């Protein structure tokens, strides 16, 4: 039976660790925090070593994972072996390795598998094998009507009391952005001073996390959300922002995506490139979704278009900089919008 991250937390508090865990889903924050809960409990139970494998492509060496399963602990201690599957698809070789581990799990090894996606097509005999000796945890995205309850639970867990109007005000401001909501709750835990929050005090304490800023604009494009791109860009324009002030962040993110696409195109170590680019684990799923939509050549085309927009904005080329910027970001978000750039 699948667990939610919340039920996993209760299970970890009320019973011993299982032999294996699969934690996957489209909500990176929930996956990360559920995995952190398993790691913390493992440390408390004496799992002193941790080995991490980034299974991010066809060239991944599953033989190394199998050797690790069989190898004795370096310091005669218990170990966590963590396998990160960005697409949550281990392939034939990986599925066999995981299933073999579950058939006869070593006494000193805890297996933790994490993934960024989940559906019926992702599971198989390997995930069923994990379920037989452990737990399968699915971190679904929080739906809009669930956001207020999620925020209320998180506030309580941080020792913050808030009435329903205050909770709804915060939910409205973060606009479904779970990471922004989590950050605001952590800030409130420091600022509330134990005093219950009503809507007015919530308004005074919480920064407007839903404001139309360039960071969220580029995230919307990378996440494949064209409607949000248009709305946020309109908001930025209405607030009096200038295109040149936006282009630094836009170009930086496009350069990062282009570098990642080049590594992926040549079958390189994408996980290593994420580390080199200092991309947070919670943000990696955003880039992976973007890389699934566009190949390396398109990212170079996007960078060239960004350069043209910068020249337009500075009066060095003809055109409407806002219009061309919108077309660029819509193309990043939706491959069908490549026609807006004059490309199929």
TrEMBL record:
Domain of life of the source: Bacteria
Keyword Transcription: no
Keyword line: DNA replication, DNA-directed DNA polymerase, Nucleotidyltransferase, Transferase
Residue ranges of domain DNA polymerase III delta N-terminal in the record: 21-116
GO MF terms, alphabetically ordered: DNA-directed DNA polymerase activity
E.C. designation(s): 2.7.7.7
Pfam family, one: DNA_pol3_delta
Signal peptide start-end: none
Family note: Belongs to the DNA polymerase HolA subunit family.
Protein name: DNA polymerase III subunit delta
Organism: Luteimonas endophytica
Upper lineage: Bacteria, Pseudomonadati, Pseudomonadota, Gammaproteobacteria, Lysobacterales
């Amino acid at each position: 039976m699948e667990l939610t991250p919340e039920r996993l937390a209760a299970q970890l508090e009320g019973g011993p660790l299982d032999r294996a865990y699969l934690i996957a889903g489209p909500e990176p924050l929930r996956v990360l925090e559920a995995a952190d809960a398993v790691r913390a409990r493992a440390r408390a139970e004496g799992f002193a070593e941790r080995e991490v494998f980034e299974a991010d492509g066809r060239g991944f060496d599953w033989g190394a994972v199998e050797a690790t399963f069989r190898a004795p602990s370096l310091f005669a201690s218990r170990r966590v072996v963590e396998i990160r599957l960005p697409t949550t698809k281990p392939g034939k070789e990986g599925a066999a390795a995981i299933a073999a581990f579950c058939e006869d799990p070593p006494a000193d090894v805890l297996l933790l598998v994490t993934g960024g996606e989940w559906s019926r097509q992702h599971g198989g005999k390997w995930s069923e094998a994990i379920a037989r000796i452990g737990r399968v945890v699915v971190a679904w995205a929080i739906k809009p009507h669930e956001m207020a309850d999620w925020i209320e639970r998180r506030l309580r867990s941080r020792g913050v009391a808030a009435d329903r109007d205050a909770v709804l005000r915060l939910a409205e401001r973060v606009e479904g952005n779970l990471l922004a909501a989590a950050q605001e709750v952590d800030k409130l835990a420091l600022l509330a001073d134990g005093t219950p929050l009503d809507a007015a005090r919530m308004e005074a304490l919480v920064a407007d996390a839903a404001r139309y800023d360039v960071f969220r604009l580029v995230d919307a494009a990378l996440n494949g959300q064209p409607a949000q791109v248009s709305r946020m860009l309109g908001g930025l324009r209405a607030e009096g922002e200038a295109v040149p002030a936006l282009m630094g962040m836009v170009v930086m993110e496009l350069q990062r995506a282009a570098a990642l696409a080049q590594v992926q195109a040549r079958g390189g170590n994408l996980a290593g490139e994420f580390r080199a680019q200092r991309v947070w684990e919670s943000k990696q799923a955003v880039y992976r979704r973007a890389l699934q939509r566009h190949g390396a050549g398109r990212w170079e085309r996007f960078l060239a278009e960004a350069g043209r927009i910068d020249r337009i904005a500075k009066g060095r080329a003809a055109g409407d900089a806002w219009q061309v910027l919108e077309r660029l970001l819509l193309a990043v978000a939706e491959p069908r919008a490549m026609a807006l750039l004059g490309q199929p």
